[in-house]
Amino acid sequence: MAAAPVVSEFSFPPPLSLYIHIPWCARKCPYCDFNSHAADHGLPEQTYVDALLADLEQEVADVWGRTVQTIFIGGGTPSLFSPAAIERLISGVKSRLSCKPGLETTLEANPGTLDQGRFREFRNAGINRLSIGVQSFNDVLLERIGRIHDAASAITAVESAREAGFETFNLDLMFGLPGQSLDLALTDLHRALDLSPPHLSWYQLSLEPNTLFHQQRPTLPEDDQIWEMQKEGQARLAAYGYTQYEISAYAREGQICRHNLNYWRYGDYLGIGAGAHAKLTFPAAQRVQRTWKIKHPRTYLRAAGSEKRIGGRLHLESREVIFEFLLNALRLNDGFTKQDFEMSTGLKFSRLLPILDAVKAPELLEMDVHGIRASRLGQCYLNDLLLEFLPDNRASQLRCD
Ligand SMILES: C[S@@+](CC[C@H](N)C(=O)[O-])C[C@H]1O[C@@H](n2cnc3c(N)ncnc32)[C@H](O)[C@@H]1O
Ligand code: SF4
User: Which of 28, 37, 145, 203 to mutate to test the pocket of ligand 1 (most atoms within 8 A of CB)?
Assistant: First the structure.
């Protein structure tokens, strides 16, 4: 029997974003499994920007007539690149793609790579949102997790961002660090809150395969301590006026990250750069497609302007589209509505109903007139909930924390 069409009566695809990956860092952090490499042999800045634009050139036909809503330059540590290179990149993007006027354009920055002048220049280059990787304000812990900066430079980075006129920015902070007590975790959080960031990403440190911390495991706090950190931290964040809208994302009013929200709402995105992923909907062909670029920067640099840049491509069956939608949308505290489902997947809501009905632990889900979301309990056991929706052929691909 032929597979049911993935995209049906909805003729318009979901909103489109652009992710740009810059894969170099000053030093590789021992916990990090991102596609990032220590820039020991210098940065091929100019050739990499050329490669990114050559890569984009190959993609434009797939998004003809569509307008990009957000740009996110991530890594790696994109703030290692000069403002002039970032400016050439952004203007190259804007001359190849239709972009929404004033679109959210984020640059990830490491406090160890910044100075006041750079921030202003990044702003002039077209960046209007920074995501600053602070991780902790405790110098002992920062050293323990291999960071190249101390707390003082993180504070200076935040002050400089404000002085340079960034009205919105994010701080990345982690908890559950080696040797961190509940007190230390909350002190860290309060030091972040004292700086009043418009947005805070507060991640629990995870030990990922293929990292130094996975081979030489540090002693992490016990699970019940981590649970306390999370519970207490969430209460403090709420008291300071931050709304949690995703597992790790907290924002002041009007400060949510539109780019990340588009991922979680199962929007479309182009991805350029070494190892970058893309997801695009082709309504006319009734197809949802995932593509990823080859991972290693050196190989990517050679292949960026040709088909060889493609690391892999997958056309999703409708069952997989449903799973991927749930994988993302259930991370959001507000979950999703019937309309969200239909607009993002192009599938009829009736396709989802039997799948929801078959959930063996219904207490992990909440369904009412406003929509469908993970319950409080479901948020705590999100992986268990998502496993219930897993199509058989994806069992080996789901990564559990
Ligand atoms: C690409 S990095 C951000 C920018 C920059 N490279 C930096 O580290 O300053 C994205 C963020 O993911 C988080 N992260 C990375 N590895 C993690 C891990 N193993 N567990 C939890 N969070 C992690 C960190 O907070 C990090 O800032
Ligand atoms: S956490 Fe950030 S700075 Fe550290 S290696 Fe990963 S991407 Fe680079």
Answer: 203
User: What band does 12 get if pLDDT is binned at 50, 70 and 90?
Assistant: low
Cα angle value 369/372/378 (rounded, 5°): 135
In the prediction, which pLDDT does 41 show? 85
Q: What's the predicted TM-score (pTM) here?
A: 0.94
Q: Which has the closest alpha carbon to 297: 88, 68, 43, 97?
A: 43
Calculate what percentage of the chain has a pLDDT beyond 90.
88
* pLDDT class of 284 with cuts at 50, 70, 90: confident
Do the beta carbons of residue 318 and residue 6 sit within 8 Å?
A: yes
Whole-number pLDDT of residue 5: 52
Q: How far is residue 137's CA from residue 149's CA, in Å, rounded to a whole number?
A: 10
Rounded Cα–Cα distance for residues 264 and 3 (Å): 26
Dist CA 201 CA 174 (whole Å): 8
pLDDT at 378 over 50: yes
Q: Which of 21, 36, 108 for a ligand 1 pocket mutation test, highest count of atoms within 8 Å of Cβ?
A: 108
134 Cα–ligand 2 center, Å: 11
Residue owning the nearest CA to atom 3 of ligand 1: 133
User: 37-73: per-residue pLDDT in tens?
Assistant: 999 888 999 999 999 999 999 999 999 999 999 999 9
Q: Give the CB-side neighbour count of residue 239, counting CA atoms within 13 A.
A: 10
Task: State how far the Cα of 19 lies from the Cα of 73, in Å rounded to an integer.
Answer: 6
The alpha carbon of 312 is separated from its chain's Cα centroid by a whole number of angstroms, namely 20
User: From ligand 1's centre to the CA of 33, what distance in Å?
Assistant: 9
Ligand 1, CB within 6 Å, residue ranges: 25, 31-32, 34, 74-75, 77, 108, 110, 133, 135, 172, 174, 203, 205-206, 208
Identify the pLDDT of residue 285.
Answer: 83
